[in-house]
Structure to design on (189 residues):
């Protein structure tokens, strides 16, 4: 499962991370709301990226170490992997900012990590960059971006035998599934 994060890998729900977000649900369901355990696992996985991080002394809430957009880590074990990818910049006002370039970079790094640590079986991904990421891109466009990046990365080297797009039930009204089906049928790049 792929999960979008901000560049600080914040985990505190409430004011910083919405309880209803994919991140909030990940903390609740997979980590049984144990944020300390999740933070320890994230810190251990980010060890390889320490030389790239920068301290933001002006960020007063949440974590203050910033990692480059696109930083992607894997948590879990051989039976179940979770890929956390930084696709947005967390402002000091606690609003995430992202754009198509950030999403694209994040997806490319995500597929590389899935290729290396995902065992080639399947990967599920929600719509990266909708609503709280403030990309201002329609959900259908974001889905097509995810699909396109997966196809291009798969042509370079095998990633997984199945990609599952997870669409939140409230988002289904924003996606024309017939247009998406046509896009998938024509997606021979």
């Amino acid at each position: 499962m792929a999960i979008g994060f901000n560049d600080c890998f914040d985990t505190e729900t409430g004011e910083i991370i919405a309880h209803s977000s994919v991140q909030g649900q990940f903390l609740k369901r997979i980590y049984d709301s144990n944020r300390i355990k999740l933070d320890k696992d994230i810190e251990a996985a980010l060890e390889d990226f320490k030389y790239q991080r920068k301290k933001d002394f002006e960020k007063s809430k949440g974590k203050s170490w910033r990692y480059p957009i696109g930083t992607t880590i894997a948590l879990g074990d051989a039976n179940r992997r979770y890929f956390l990818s930084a696709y947005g910049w967390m402002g000091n006002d606690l609003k995430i900012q992202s754009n198509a370039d950030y999403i694209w970079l994040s997806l490319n790094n995500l597929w590389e990590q899935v290729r290396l640590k995902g065992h080639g079986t399947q990967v599920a991904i929600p719509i990266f960059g909708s609503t709280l990421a403030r990309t201002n891109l329609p959900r259908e466009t974001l889905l097509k971006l995810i699909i396109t990046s997966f196809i291009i990365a798969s042509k370079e080297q095998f990633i997984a035998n199945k990609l599952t797009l997870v669409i939140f039930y409230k988002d289904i009204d924003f996606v024309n599934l017939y247009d998406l089906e046509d896009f998938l049928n024509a997606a021979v790049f």
In short: The chain has five helices and eight strands. Residues 53 and 67 are 5 Å apart (CA to CA). The mean pLDDT is 92.
